[in-house]
Amino acid sequence: MQSVIERYRSVRDRTERLACSLSAEDQVVQSMPDASPTKWHRAHTTWFFAEFVLGADGSSDRAWDRPEYRFLYNSYYEAVGARHPRPERGLVTRPSIEEIAAYRSHVDAEIEALVSMGSHQTKLDALVLGTHHEEQHQELLLIDIKHVLSMNPSVGPAYVDLAVPAADDPGPMAWIEVPGGIVDIGHECSDRSPLENFAFDNESPRHEVRLYDFALADRLVTAGEWLGFIDDGGYRRPELWKSDGWYRAQAEQWEAPLYWRRHPDDPQRWWLHTLTGLRSLDSHEPVVHVSHYEADAFATWAGARLPTEFEWEHAAGARPVSGIFLDERNPEFTFHPTAAGPPTGDLRQLYGDCWEWTSSAYQPYPGFRIADGAIGEYNGKFMSGQQVLRGGGALTPPGHTRSTYRNFFHPHTRWHLAGVRLAADRAR
Asked: 341, exposed or middle or buried, with CB in 10 Å at 0-12, 13-18, 19+?
């Protein structure tokens, strides 16, 4: 198993690898309020270690401890103090990316010294949490730069230049029966160190849930199946949509998933903006970049529903965490979800490829308590008005997710890597 410092180094190195191909201009742009500039992600994840592990207070003469960084790179921690408005992060041209690189180096050196002295034990939880926090921002860095590049009026700006082969037909969707009952849900705490048994606080406490027999689709919904929804008027039929979703779809004039573009010479054909540039839509790939509202409307159109997060976790619990995750060093990795592969008689694409929308609102588990201090603001304060997603995606770092992991986004959001798995009731 990796030591704490080995994990720290590997996580920090990956962030820099993901950013290294981006120009200074690429790294400062903020294309919408929900997204953040690459430079900000690099600085904020460093600030997290400075604030919660090293204990920055703005009064030190250490090279990394600058009061303005505390203001610029605090994301949402009210207990820490004032911060720069999120929608205006792209207006901050200074510090430069060179200064941010120096900031990262200074903090890395301080963390290395702290760990080498053996004085890190009292801050081990925060140090390990910081590495998982940075992995979350690695995924955000990629989905945010994808949105930035989609704003470019040139044809097919790419984050990485890769040839993407055509996907194989995954075969027809099948149903996998899952028995219900009284099941245990959530992370099971143990005496092992956080390095060995990490989970976010929103995954606990472990508790019992009553499930009725249900079935899950054996794979994710494909782009080709989504075309059927479009062709059947799915975006024009209010009876398929929840009210809030219908109003949002009308207000923003949705007619397809985010990043789908009609071919200029043939409106019946679609192009797709990806991190490898603009290319023809592949009908065998999973549909991705759809909101919860769209996912729910599609499920209604298909005569099915979305799974609850508890159904998903119960079905996933005994299966290995294996799938298409972020592998930026693999020349065959396409930075995009891939087709499911041939049928196996079991669930496919359960992990990786796309985060899967569930029908569950993001709420605390029975007995959940927000931790004391600023670190308690990490998850608990967001438990209102959001939906849970499960499984991980193609831009999620490997080893980051697990069966109990609860991702969450507002139901209208589409820029993150979210797809759809259908569920169905079964007679009791």
From this structure: middle
Q: Give the architecture (CATH level 2) of 4-150.
A: Up-down Bundle (1.20)
> 0.90 exceeded by the pTM?
yes
- pLDDT for position 59: 45
Using H for helix, E for strand and C for coil, what is the string for 175-225?
A: EEEECCEEEEECCCCCCCCCCCCCCCHHHCCCEEEEECCEEEECCCCEHHH
What is the average pLDDT across 358-367?
98
Cβ count near 188 (within 10 Å) = 12
Give me the residue spans of the domains in the chain: 4-150, 175-425
Which pLDDT tens digit goes with each residue over 78-133? 999 999 999 999 999 999 999 999 999 999 999 999 888 876 666 888 999 999 99
Evaluated on CA atoms 83, 87, 92, 97, the torsion sign reads: positive
Strands 266-274 and 277-280 turn out to be: antiparallel
CATH code matching the domain that covers 175-425, chosen among 3.30.565.10, 1.10.287.130, 3.90.1580.10, 3.30.365.10: 3.90.1580.10
Which two three-digit tokens encode residue 158? 């790419």
Q: What is the mean pLDDT of residues 218-243?
A: 98
The pLDDT tens digits of the residues spanning 28-59 come to 999 999 999 999 999 999 999 999 999 854 44
DSSP per-residue codes, 80-92: G-----GGGGGG-
Q: Cα–Cα–Cα angle for 165, 171, 175, nearest 5°?
A: 135
* Chain CA centroid to CA 163, Å: 24
Q: Measured in whole angstroms, how far is the alpha carbon of residue 36 from the centre of its chain?
A: 14
Give whole-number Cα distances, 59 to 54, 56, 64, 69, 105, in Å.
13, 8, 11, 12, 20
